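User: Batch of two.

Assistant: Item 1 of 2:
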Amino acid sequence: MVKLAFGSALCAALLFLSPVQAKDTLHRAVIADPAADAANPAGMSAFVIPTDGGAMNAVMYTAAGRGPHPTLLLLHGFPGNEQNLDLAQAARRAGWNVLTLHYRGSWGSPGTFSFGNAAKDAHRALEYLHDPAVVAKYHIDTKYVAVAGHSMGGFMAADTAADDPLVAGLFLIDAWDPSATAQSLSTPAGVAAWKEEVAGDLPPLAGTSYDALTAEITGNTDRFDLGKRVLAYGNRPLLLVGAERGIGAQSRTVAGEAQSAGAAAQFMIWPTDHSFSDKRIALADLLVRWLDQVAPPLP
């Protein structure tokens, strides 16, 4: 059965965990490679996941051992310059398979990029992890499938996890709330900031534009409301970690709403930038400790 809450002691540790830790206190999966398993070695597979109107270029990092293995769907942001593959490697060392991908229309994946298509792609990727052939091939333990996402990927992670009651945990890294950006467009400063953001993010994306992306988030703010998707996710393990020099204020608001509704949401904010540039080891440590609570480590 999926755990619905963490132990109180661990919750307290997570809430007040400093992002700077001594090396000897870090999770082993962050600082040391596991013993090699000659019969069932760790590996990596690259493939394409078909989706309506396109496809996703994807990579599965497979954990060592016979399994079955808990599995993490890891979703990057907009456009995905930071792919968080260091987190994928740490999670694999902790015994988890990790599926990463590029949404259709991004970074060479066929199709047209849009926020709506990215959401559909996240849903499709989660379905992929429950396909019987995929489960057998990668030794996936379908009782323990979790979703993590950074920035825009945080919204996509919450969106797909909310719609799948089998998701065992949700981990959001300085998650973006598109509805908050839509609200900010009522001011000249908000418009200028959004234009600058999109201009820098368009090059690796196909078939889209500033006008198209803006119309998506302003035309249906309910659909792209991170808080509502987190509330729909309900009382399952959820951790939001925000960045002071990023968009952590959005996660603070969402976490407060979730906690007020009685959800098992944990929140912290760290003094770093949106990419956690100077807190990568601490972030990996936080993730793998959280994963240990979602699915107990295999002996």
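Item 2 of 2:
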Amino acid sequence: MPSPKVFHERLSGKVAIVTGAGSLGHGFGTGKAIACLFAAEGASVCLVDQQHERAAETLTLITDAGGQAFISTGDVTDSAVCARIVDETVERYGGLDILVNNVGISGAPGRLEDIDEASWDRVIDVNLKSAFLMSRSAVPKIVARGGGAIVNISSVAGIRSHGSAAYGSSKAGMVAFTRELAVMYGRDFVRANAIAPGHIFTPMVESMLNEKARERRRKIAPLPLEGDAWDVAAAALFLASDESRFITGTCLPVDGGVTEIAALAAYDLVQQ
């Protein structure tokens, strides 16, 4: 889908942190799209990325459009860095309402005997531990504002087998972690929900898949196309906004229906 052009100030006055807000190249990864859409909807946004230059274009896009944002660099697998990012955001904008745990890597492919321990640990740390560390620092600040929203970016690999043990396990953990947050902090009016993207075309995916693989993705789902970062951003906006005030603990697939397909149905779709 194209970048949304009509905005309704659905996050007016809100303060958000988006991890992984940079992007490879000049395309739109999910974090970049989420940050830009949140800013367009009125939020002040902390753009978190390990590399400043990756978030610089996101910042330029936001500020050129009249939005509010700043960059905070650091490794979100480090608890001290996570605490510092939250403190910087609160100091600059006066509070915190929304946390989007988006940062993630693929990594550690293959069968178990092909995965070394360090690679496994790295995927779990980046994809899951970072969400724990960021949430641990952010939740007290969100509670202090009277509540807010946490949006965790999981994957269809977290609810269906993906053929990648470390990645799938980390994303399944994200779904479970989201449920725990929802139950622990619901009485504080903190909502926690996850998004499970699938078959989303981003700069990272472009570097990994050839056209033949992309065509297979388009054929296997009920909706015969690929999604993009704006599809994920639109879902994140809904879950971060007051429009989802009575929704917590859920995992929303943004996948063209691929997780609803049984094996024989998928075969029939591919033949069509």
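The chain has a mean pLDDT of 91.
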